[in-house]
Design goal:
SH3 type barrels, 3 domains, 5-stranded antiparallel β-sheet, 3-stranded antiparallel β-sheet, Alpha-Beta Plaits, alpha+beta
Length: 350
């Protein structure tokens, strides 16, 4: 088949037009869009949009102003419709994922930042885009939907465990009782920060920096203590004991001074809280009480407790306040001497 000079000229000119349009679109994206949307979270979703817009313009010029064979025009038009639908679907999926992430991140804690919602939203958009693509190519989606409906029961039975985890994850997110970043404790003794909730499991980072992967269905059926609800601040109750010879008013005043200093200066302390001292027990060797401080969140309490105990011990030594060892004092009434018989009876029946 002999190729005419006019055809080669039109073909090369078409390629040059398309390449030039793609280059202009890339240049606009690199210069204009990057400057306008530099700090905008939407920019990541629009990555490649300039190149796509340039290609779209190039194909439009080809189809409108160049005399291409009819068979070529039909192939190019069909391919371009498919690429256009696919590109729009990808951009919408990206944008939806970023919008969900943005809404979760700065929504004042109303929603958790979980990959499950993002993945479900993206999957729905891709399914709709795929159906639209098939419909534009003349392929009916009705039989496919019918087949999916018929096979749905079999799939649900085969994937019962997976679907249970999926819907449990959706239920956990929808209830908004557990969110990303919260510190939770399960009835089994597992505890840590929630780092992600996906379609199958919830990821928890323990204080030991180990990762706990818990199926969503098990998490949904567990009794959970959430230390971040209604707010992340947590009371830190520290038991202390002093000698029976101590002046309790003086002990209380000194203890509150130390507690107030820690509460006001410690980086992990919740601002604005006034420490509390409450005497609660006449123990065997001491009068016991609790000092209540407040930490910003669960993990801050350990260093705060550590620093308070050190500071209180130093201050008690300076003030002469005694923290007694566990002892028992046994008193004997020797006013009336005991006979040998009485000593034997006491020894036999203590």
């Amino acid at each position: 088949m002999e190729i005419s000079t006019e055809f080669m000229y039109a073909f090369l000119l078409s390629l040059a037009t398309l390449a030039g349009s793609v280059f202009i679109g890339w240049l606009l994206e690199r210069i204009a869009l990057r400057r306008w949307l530099k700090d905008n979270y939407i920019f990541g979703a629009l990555r490649g949009l300039g190149v796509f817009a340039g290609a779209w313009m190039g194909v439009h010029i080809l189809l409108r102003y160049f005399q291409l064979p009819e068979s070529w025009r039909n192939i190019i038009l069909s391919l371009w419709q498919s690429v256009f639908i696919l590109a729009i679907t990808i951009y919408l999926a990206r944008l939806t994922g970023r919008l969900i992430n943005k809404k979760m991140s700065d929504g004042n804690g109303l929603l958790p930042t979980a990959t499950l919602l993002q993945n479900v939203a993206k999957a729905l958009i891709f399914m709709i885009g795929f159906m639209v693509l098939l419909q534009t190519q003349g392929i009916s989606v009705a039989p496919m939907l019918t087949a999916l409906g018929v096979g749905g029961l079999a799939v649900a039975l085969a994937l019962q465990g997976t679907l249970s985890n999926l819907f449990s994850g959706i239920q956990i997110i929808a209830s908004r009782k557990i969110r990303i970043g919260h510190f939770i404790r399960l009835e089994e003794g597992l505890e840590g920060y929630v780092t992600d909730i996906n379609w199958r499991s919830t990821t928890i980072r323990a204080l030991s920096n180990q990762t706990i992967i818990l199926p969503n269905a098990k998490l949904a059926d567990s009794t959970i203590t959430n230390t971040w609800v209604p707010d992340p601040e947590i009371a830190v109750a520290i038991p202390v004991g002093v000698s029976y010879d101590s002046d309790l008013e003086y002990v209380e005043r000194v203890t509150l001074e130390v507690a107030g200093t820690i509460q006001a200066s410690h980086p992990g302390a919740a601002p604005g809280f006034e420490p509390v001292v409450r005497f609660n027990e006449f123990a065997d060797s001491s009068i016991n009480f609790r000092v209540v401080l407040r930490a910003k969140e669960f993990s801050e309490q350990f260093l705060m407790r550590h620093d308070f105990i050190k500071a209180l011990h130093t201050r008690y030594k300076k003030e002469g306040i005694n923290i007694p060892f566990p002892i028992q004092t046994v008193q004997f009434d020797l006013a009336t001497p005991l006979s040998v018989k009485d000593w034997k009876n006491n020894a036999a029946h203590p």
